[in-house]
Amino acid sequence: MILLTIIAMGLALSIGELPWEETHFETLWSLRGGRALLALGVGGCLAVAGVLLQALFANPLCEPYTLGVSSGAALGAVLTGALGWSGLLEGIAIGPLFGALLFSVPLLFGPQGNRLLLMGVLISFFGSSLVALTLALSDVRGVSQALIWLLGDLSRATSSGAITAILFGLITMLWVRRRHAELDILLLGEKQARSVGVPIRSLRREILITSSLLVAVGVAFCGMVGFIGLVVPHAIRKWQGSAHKNVLPMAWLLGGLSLVLADCVGRGFFSPIEIPIGVVTALMGVPLYAIWSLRSPHA
Amino acid sequence: MLEARNLSWCQSRGALVAGVSVTVSLGEWISLVGPNGAGKSTLLQVLAGTLEYPSQSFSGSISWQHQDWTQLDSRVRASRVAYLGSELESLFPLRVIDAVSAGQFAVVPGQQRPRSSDLRFALSFCELEGLQDRDLATLSGGERQRVLLARGLVQGAQVLFLDETFGKMDLDYQFELGARLQKLTREGVLSVVLVSHDPSLSGRFADRVWLMNQGRLVAEGQPDKVLNEESLSRVFPRASLASLFKSE
User: Are B48 and A241 within 8 A, CB to CB?
Assistant: First the structure.
């Protein structure tokens, strides 16, 4: 899979207006390298967050955006957009970052189990309504940038920001991986986990903090890229089994790989028109996954 | 070994368990009998520690060999008492062997363990050798209950709380696994507290019986002293049940 990722990175560099032969590597790298690296980093963050949240709730329908952290990010984006402030720092959109972090706070003090899940979904609706309110009250031009961002946008990538995203995802993944045994047991449900002595309270807090940070970083860099965080964990589990020792690093890699490929498609297919990457991941992911999932007893 | 004094567990609607004092000694089989909603499951979960301590709902005291049970690490508790319910499922792909070895999480390094905690012993005890690589989702309810029991053994717990854990198993499995567990209790390596709605199973293996109603322990003692017409009719007023509980 590492090999596949390297091939995908090469592909990402070569797709576009300028062909390989006529240009120097440096030129290509400066145009597309940061972007490809960012796709790699963000895809990894989202996939790992998906793995963690699905395990926490023992629910295959969970994904990084289920808990409403992302709607906080969306709110941050349209608010800063409406105020006419772009707020970029090394490719990180400050508004969404703060929105996401703010919306993840109530989860840490919230109830348990499915009630927490319900609360996350409610927070998500609340956030979306505030986004709609902001859109209704502000003028169109300021918000159009925010709308592009909402569909996923890698165009503001910088190499250093992208490397930050990759390292952040990788380190967080490796750190949370030390609790792989607990995560495996959570797949049997919270009740079973308690019964074998898993300290649910501290584990839940750790997973919520970790996954909220991963989502916040992911969306702050490139907006709402859907589907990676839902499907990549399932694909890995179906392929490799459910042991988180392997699932976490594999998901991190496959998440990055998928997003790099999706970006290639988004840039190459209707070139020179660029399709928002969130649209590509969903349009490609849904049919692929539907076909695959019909052949298995699990979701 | 495990001793509870004046244990209560209250919720906004009232006490689910009210002032119960019980002890479990090593090597005994206790059948816990009572009508629906009597507080049987709550009592066992509070005792096992799978409902969180500390909690405002909780009052009374529990001790394990004179140590404060509620202060122990959850993993240590799970290596001494295993609470097994009636269901084991997952919406994710998991093999039987994964679910059984989940019990090893409770294994505390350096602590002496009974041989029942050996993975192979547990699988053969519950006759799961042929199923160990099967996906949990492809098993029947009764087969999954055998997986659950195997996991409880792997935890290495000296006390097994079996809360309707036999409910969906074939009758011959219920009695054979019951007999195998009874053998372990006779050897003095295990204690069992069984909740079952099947009177023949409850009556058959019990050394002692706890009879619960409305959150309280209403009678406790040897089977023939508790499972008689007089005390049973106070708890189950609709039918005469004493003859069903007869053990051989």
Answer: no
